[in-house]
Amino acid sequence: MRIIGDYHTHTIYSHGTGTIRDNVEAALNKGLKEVAICDHGPKHYLYGIKKKDISKMREEVERLKEEYEDRGIKILLGVEANIIGFDGTIDVDEKLLKEIDILLLGYHYGVTPNSIMNGLGMYILNPISKGLPLGRKSSLELNTKAFIKAINKYPVDLITHPGSKVKLDIKELAREAYKHGTALEINSSHSQLSVDNIKIALEEKVEFMINSDAHKPEDVGNVEEGIKRAIEAEVPLQRIRNILRN
Ligand SMILES: [Zn+2]
Ligand SMILES: [Zn+2]
Known about the structure:
This protein has 246 residues and is an alpha/beta fold. The chain is built from eight helices and seven strands, in the order βαβαβαβααβαβαβα.
């Protein structure tokens, strides 16, 4: 099992170590046909992209697209957006949406929420309630609903590492994601989706993508972990968007 493209790679524009060109070169060396540059959304206070950098990134991608046209690799610019409120708001506005080719969405600690209430719930109570039975069910419900609201509001292509960092109702999320054409990620750098959660998602019609979540160029296209889990969960090939068929 091989992938045709890696749609989740980071660069120096957030906290990756390579440039956009480095990731493109790495993808080419791995025999990939497509690579997406998806750095963290601007509301991550440690390593979110700077809004002013987006047009610079776009220009760079356009330049590289021209340069690499004959080398058989397609380059996409995206963002790994953050969910910033229980109302499903994400840190990507209309302007940024117009600049990108692919929209990823994930939950990350260290995000500036859109209100104090959301801040308490999403980024303080969530980490605290992790190990406690008390309040766990409601936070799971709230988090799941937040993702569902987000995919209703925005054209999200992929939910990254669903269930990592914050627990989600995978079955409910998978059902809604299918309705909106949103794929769920089998992330090779995070433990989610786990084999068990892939099996739960398989009960719905949702599709998957297997990505590296590379933070350094040499990890671009490294998806062995994800492939291993997909095989173990017996995911049919036609359910994986970026798998090489034939
Ligand atoms: Zn992430
Ligand atoms: Zn990532």
